[in-house]
Amino acid sequence: MKALDMQRLSSHPLTRCSVFIVISVACQVSSGQEPTSSETLDRPLRVLTANIWNYAEPYELRMKLLREQITALQPDVIGFQEAGWKSEEEHQVKQLLHGLNYHIEHESDGSDNKERRLLDVAVASRWPLKRKAFHSLPGSGKALAVEITAPQPIGRLLFVSTFGTARWQFDRELQRERDAVALDRFIREISDPNGFPPIIAGDFDATPDSAGIRYLTGLQSLDGHSTHYYDVWKAAGNRGAGHTWTTQNHYAKKTTEQFWHLSDHHRRIDYIFLGSPHHFRGYARVVSTRVVLNQPTGTDWPSDHFGVLAEIATTPEDSEATGIDK
Which domain holds residue 170? Predict the structure, then answer.
């Protein structure tokens, strides 16, 4: 545009306002600051972790149970583990949540799934998300991190789904410890200390008294490092065991009998962790946590794992406990 024409346009009040808006948006994009959600969340954030056991049979029935129970829970964000993907099909999570208005990110972009994938991680969110990073952990674990454009007062939410493909054996605590240290380092490198605390959802193959979980919850150091996240089950005040892998579920019982020769076995190995106020300035407080995806139809369950659902207050006004499962 000629200089004279620009002068004429810039003299018009409406044009000056439009130019200012365009320049402002351009500055935001160029500096990496994308506009955040204009919504306001006036209730606790609902977070679910779910190991969905890929394509294990009876697959169609299990997917029906998972979909029904996830729909009833109405989670805002979900971390999936053991999420499958068959070639020439939509991946398992996309099929599971079809029509439920979730934004979804899978660890794979589909270009490398010539063979059936069984042990992937994925994330779903009610609000727009973008892939932040994918990280392979040294002990066979993996972590998919996304940045969710959540309503205020959350704003940008770093959410991570994690899982280990070969650390489930009882004698693999060294691998689990290495993964715990690497996971913390990964999250601290990509998170904003001035923002809302990051949330981790995953199958850790470890009980609360294990070194890796004790490290993440600030009870011990590992490899010369220490950190702190809230284990939402304990932070909610629960006194029950909270088992998520139990021979009460006959799918899990088949595995424990086959590999460990145990017919009576119960552990809590699926977790949601919330970033610590020691490290992050955004307000977050766990108000309730319960074991979910644990309703069978006859002898059939949604998965061989139970899930965990947490409600996290994002303002002090939302911090009154709601339905703590003690």
Answer: 36-318
